[in-house]
What does this fold into?
Amino acid sequence: MNSELEEYILRHSEAEPEYLYRLWRATNVHTIHGRMASGHLQGRLLKMLVEMIRPKRILEVGTFSGYSAISMAEGLPEDGRLYTFEINDEMEDFTRPWIEGSAVADKIEFIIGDALEEAPKLGITFDMAFIDGDKRTYRECYEMVLSILRPGGFILADNTLWDGHVVDHAYDNDHQTQGIEAFNDFIAQDNRVEKVILPLRDGLTLIRKKTTD
It folds into this structure.
């Protein structure tokens, strides 16, 4: 997709909230990997998917700067709650003020820690999950999430096209690429779920846990 087409899409989509635009700008100025933030188009899609799926409890693995967490929380009902885990404690000083300063702060529980270990300890059955953490552990994260997701619940997995590296043999020895490829191959054969990869930004896989085996 070229920049002209991308700009056209954004002009004809729901406008990015001013607070999230400022967060996106701050993320790109003050963090090394600013492009990891979901951004305008994906943020509006996440909000709309929440409004369509209508979950009460959402799990996010990988908060980063909080853009996706805030976007999803915007779509939650008044009694909805999003639990977001960030394993990199160096992000806390940047991210926590942005989450706590948002209009949906009361719907977000921001937790520093390893979701693989800590999320099951919450004792919550989730309706929806967004996986956007360490690509090397995507398959392990998926199994953890699936175990605490209700039948009929949804998982969104980000970066599943990985800048096209999944079909570029020059990256065959890259551990993160290997993690994404292993995840994609596994999901494609997993009969416990329905799945489709959306070619949005860096690839977004939409997964639905079947209600019966």
Remarks:
- The beta strands are 57-61, 81-86, 108-112, 126-131, 149-158, 193-198, 204-209.
